[in-house]
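Researcher: Go.
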Amino acid sequence: MVKVLKISSLELAVDFEEIFDGASVEEATQKAHNQKMPSEFAKASITDNKLISANIKLIGEENNGSK
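Model: Structure:
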């Protein structure tokens, strides 16, 4: 058996959806506005992708005597 490793580089367009809460509309809106990156709890949907490059290389070969 032969094993290969594929390393791909993709460009993604992603929509994130996240809920913010606060004591008031202003507080919740301020939290959402101040956030720089989506948190781990945000729902992500990939909307577009583009393959930039891909490399495949041999990483292992099992010699069993038969071809």
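Model: Strands lie at 2-17, 43-61.
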